């Protein structure tokens, strides 16, 4: 009887320990299973070629959006052994046009399924050729519109109100008075002519309405009456009419064979001598030699450019020495919020293409 009681006591005392041990074993099995699952998932992740993670490529926050879906390899590391890395690359993620997509690079990527471009413009890509290799091309429309419209209005305002010149006077140790040369031009209730009324152009119109500007626009096709009324825009079927009437001409077109050199000597001569040309599209949309002459001769008042050709301009280019030119280095989409949205859209496009699904923003050759 005493032995039986003893055994019962031992079992009571040992039961919690056994339960604890069983729980530990179960947790250990679960952990091992999760590690194995993660390892399998990691091995299944496709590979993507990028420019680099760093100052001239993707910020760490941006790269963090790619890593859950792709193993990434920088172009520099890829070049060390393209024969080893090339066959496993299924996605090429372009940021600021890099890595440059050339036939020599594409020839090293036999498993490539998609070129995912960060940004709307794809003028740097030979889409028909890339498609002929069985590779899709995607871009990131929509998410860039607000930031690009913002920089367009920022350039317009800075040029009109001589913000940069004012800053230089304000910080100059020799300044003792405010010179009259800082007299600017009125933005409110002036006339804004927008050439290219797509996503970005329409966002610019919305901002112009906030300044009580009269909005004119020229586009391949007319917007709906509802769209026009929402921003108070008037359609100009003839671009010449817009150029003659506008105080500010804003370029927001895609670069195509038709828009290359869209603004040249004749178009600039139609503008008011008090007018300002603002370009947030592509440098090649404007004949820069014609623009230099127009600015030097007083044909137009000023130019404010987020884009040039090439980028950056040669350091001795005449545009850089003109006092009535404001240039920013193609930073239209350069906000962290927009950049993260762009990368996420690139990833979504690339993941779909790699899986053989319809890419949300596939670019079709025209």
UniProtKB/TrEMBL annotation:
What positions does the domain D-isomer specific 2-hydroxyacid dehydrogenase catalytic occupy? 76-364
Keyword DNA damage recorded? no
Record key words, sorted: Oxidoreductase
Single Gene Ontology MF annotation: hydroxypyruvate reductase [NAD(P)H] activity
User: InterPro entries in the record, alphabetically?
Assistant: D-isomer_2-hydroxyacid_DH, D-isomer_2_OHA_DH_cat_dom, D-isomer_DH_CS1, D-isomer_DH_NAD-bd, NAD(P)-bd_dom_sf
Q: Does the keyword Oxidoreductase apply?
A: yes
Instruction: Give a single Pfam family match.
Output: 2-Hacid_dh_C
Residue ranges occupied by any D-isomer specific 2-hydroxyacid dehydrogenase NAD-binding domain in the UniProt entry? 153-332
Q: Cellular component GO terms, alphabetically? A: cytosol
Superkingdom to which the source organism belongs: Eukaryota
Family note: Belongs to the D-isomer specific 2-hydroxyacid dehydrogenase family.
Q: What is this protein called?
A: Glyoxylate reductase/hydroxypyruvate reductase
Record lineage? Eukaryota, Metazoa, Chordata, Craniata, Vertebrata
